[in-house]
Each structure stands twice: as structure tokens, then as C-alpha cells.
């Protein structure tokens, strides 16, 4: 028989647990947990989906964080290519949280410049290493997520070393320093100011994302319907 025992203030244990989890997610933002969605909850996609459609209908809370980062880069006077890299940098999390930089690079590489793809991939490793020359410190939120004694895995160190010695290191670091770690759940940044930026830096396939012959089309189709059984 289902228990209906109540906690403080008449709140059931299940409701209390849900409230605490919501508070945790609000505090840590898109790094806190994977969003679980089903086909019934997803807005339908148009016949020829664009990147804007994915921002509006599939990227969820991650889109909010990316928009905040892009706005930060814009306000800080970053070049437009960096603003665009900030706009898409964490959207790989909608596929997988671990190694999201790798997922995002694979997702976007057919449609963006080599510099943007490089920055998106390598922000994942660079963010674990302070860079005083850029005013970048190790994020406190990582202490919460990984623990105070966390040491990045060898592959992350190797990625960092490669990026650190690459001619495009500056591009990746400009993304890292403009990554917004506030994760303000009440912020409502608009995509509208970045529509033209997308138009200039993203090569939209005429067939629509997911239906073009690029090697990452299957990833966009997965995002369209992540609950599809096969």
C-alpha cells in the first residue's frame, strides 16, 4: 500500500525529495543532472530544422546557460566568432554530459569553422586548469561537482597540453573565460540578438539538420526524438 506520510508542513517525503532536487538543479544549472524527456513532451520539429529550432525546442536549460555565456562574451568585446562558440559550447550536453566538448565538436564540425570546432572541443579540458594570464581561476562549482581532491584524468591532461601548445589556444581560452558559471535560473536571455551571428557562422544545410548527408546528421536526429525506441 502506498504511504502518504507527510513531512514538515504537511509535505510528503516524495514532494520533499522533489523540492530538494529542484533546488540542487537550480543551484548548479545545466551541470547538475540530465534532463529526462519523452516524445510526448517534446515540441514537434519543422520539416527542415535549423539550429534556431534546436535552441528553441530541444536544448532546454543548456540553451539558457549558453545564451548567458554568449551575452557575456559580447559585453566583454570578444570577437564574433568567440561569441558564437560560446553560444554553442555546452549544447553537446543534450547528447551526453561526460566529454560534452567532444560530443559538441562532432555535432558541429561539418557546419562551423575549424577555429570554432577547436574552441568548443578544448574548452572541456582547459576549464580544469587555472590560467592567471587570462584571469581564469578554477571554478568553485567544480569543487562541488568533483570534490576538492579531484585530479583530471590523463586524457584531459593530454588534451590540455595539446591545446596549450596549439596556435588556436587563444580562441579556446577566450571561450573559457567567457563561460558563465552563474547558472542564473531566473535569467531569460533572448536568442534574438544572436540570430544574425548564427547566420554568419553556421552553415545551415538546405535539407534541414538531421536530413543532410553530413557525418553528424544522426546526432541531430537523436536530438529530435531521444525517446525513439530504435
Spatial separation of the terminal alpha carbons: 36 Å
What fraction, in percent, of the residue positions are helical?
Answer: 40-55%
The string of secondary-structure elements, in order, is HHHHHHHHHHH
Largest sheet: none
Compute the CA-based radius of gyration: 19 Å
Description:
By secondary structure, the chain is mainly alpha-helical. It has a single domain, classed as Orthogonal Bundle (Hypothetical protein af1432), CATH 1.10.3210. Helix content is 49%, strand content 0%. The protein is built from 11 helices and no strands. The protein has helices at 13-28, 51-57, 60-75, 80-88, 100-108, 114-126, 140-146, 154-164, 169-178, 195-201, 217-224. α6 packs across α8.
Layout: helices, strands, pairs:
Elements: H1 13-28, H2 51-57, H3 60-75, H4 80-88, H5 100-108, H6 114-126, H7 140-146, H8 154-164, H9 169-178, H10 195-201, H11 217-224
Overview features:
230 residues, mainly alpha, Hypothetical protein af1432, 11 helices, disordered N terminus
Offer a concise description of the structure:
Helix content is 49%, strand content 0%. It is mainly α and 230 residues long. Mean pLDDT is 87; it is low at 1-8 and 32-40.
